[in-house]
Amino acid sequence: MTSLPPPGPIPPTGSQWTIGLGDSEATVVEVGGGLRTFTVGGRDVVAGYGALDACRSGRGQQLMPWPNRIRDGRYTFGGADHQLPVTEVPKHNASHGLVRWALWELVEHEESSVTVGYRLHPQPGWDHHLDLRTTYVLDGSGLVVTSAARNVGATTAPFGYGAHPYLSTGAHRVDDAELTVPATAWVEVDERSLPVATHPVDGTAYDFRSPRAIGAQVVDTAYTGVLRDQDGMWRTTLVLPGGDWATLWADAAFPWLQVFTGAAHLGKDTGGVAVEPMTCPADAFNSGDSLLILEPGEEWTGTWGVSAGTAPHDRLATAG
């Protein structure tokens, strides 16, 4: 499969590593080690971007060593105060980790799988060494993504993980898509998108436990209290007019997810709904909420994936 940039201009996201299985194909990029495309039978299952386009709106990016935001980029850990660069300037937050614009290395590339890696070194606001690895595999269920983070340093490290794929709405409007979110609680945020309180979804506009159309509602919301199926996975599903569907599923490593439907409503044309599996919510470096603590030599791993089909009745039979 393709492992080098095409002739001509260098893609903004560097080398392009393409994998395939049957009528399924996915492309992973050097910049951020993220997912640029995933198609089944020529249909865009995730809302990606062209090889010569820049990644915008976080499409397919990996968010480590924290997802979402850290207030003012400041936190205290190990008895010391730390100041990260403020990367979300309008809201004065450190946003989405330290690796989404880093150059990841190709570790292994087979016809239907690719593994990329990155060594995260100490830098301003971050004192630790982590070995990061992500493997993308196409199999009979769709796309399966397994990430791992090993603390290879001498100090205990805080850690959180998130991924930022968008389930594609294709030619349809986000408003017309039907969404299911298997979660019992949602997180209220302030004007800086930082957590204020967690509430039950019962009786609120954030309750998508039963499938319903998104309509004009703008959702940029973290959910927890996830409801898992018998296999231990939670599944968030987007169904389009006509019956095409896509499901993002995640294992026990992910007690949180973020759903973002607002891109189209806010004039940002991503062509999809972001469903982000997360290990912790925003500002976990300060709140400690679901924050992972990696001892020297300790490794975290988690798996999520995307399945797709064309008839609503077979969603759960084929997803994950």
What does the model show?
By secondary structure, this protein is mostly beta strands. It has a single domain, classed as Beta-galactosidase, Chain A, domain 5 (Distorted Sandwich). It has 3 helices and 27 strands. It has helices spanning about 260-265, 285, 315-320, and strands spanning about 15-20, 25-30, 35-40, 45, 60-65, 70, 75, 80-85, 95, 105-110, 115-120, 130-140, 140-150, 155-160, 160-165, 165-170, 180, 185-190, 195-200, 210-215, 220-225, 235-240, 245-250, 255-260, 270-280, 290-295, 300-310. The strands form 7 sheets. A 9-stranded antiparallel beta sheet has the order 10-11-12-13-27-23-22-17-20, with no helix packed on it. A 6-stranded antiparallel beta sheet has the order 16-25-24-21-18-19. Strand 3 (about 35-40) and strand 4 (about 45) form a beta hairpin. The protein starts with 15 loop residues before the first strand and ends with a helix.
Total number of beta strands = 27
Annotated CATH topology: Beta-galactosidase, Chain A, domain 5
Number of helices: 3
> Order of strands across the widest beta sheet?
10-11-12-13-27-23-22-17-20
CATH architecture: Distorted Sandwich
Distance between the termini: 24 Å
Task: Please report which band the strand proportion falls in: under 5%, 5-15%, 15-25%, 25-35%, 35-45% or over 45%.
Answer: 35-45%
Q: Which value, in Å, is the CA radius of gyration?
A: 19 Å
Low-confidence stretches: 315-320
H/E series: EEEEEEEEEEEEEEEEEEEEEEEEHEHEEH
CATH class: Mainly Beta
Task: Kindly give the count of domains.
Answer: 1
Structural class: mainly beta
Q: Kindly state the percentage of residues in helix.
A: under 10%
How would a crystallographer describe the biggest sheet? 9 strands, antiparallel
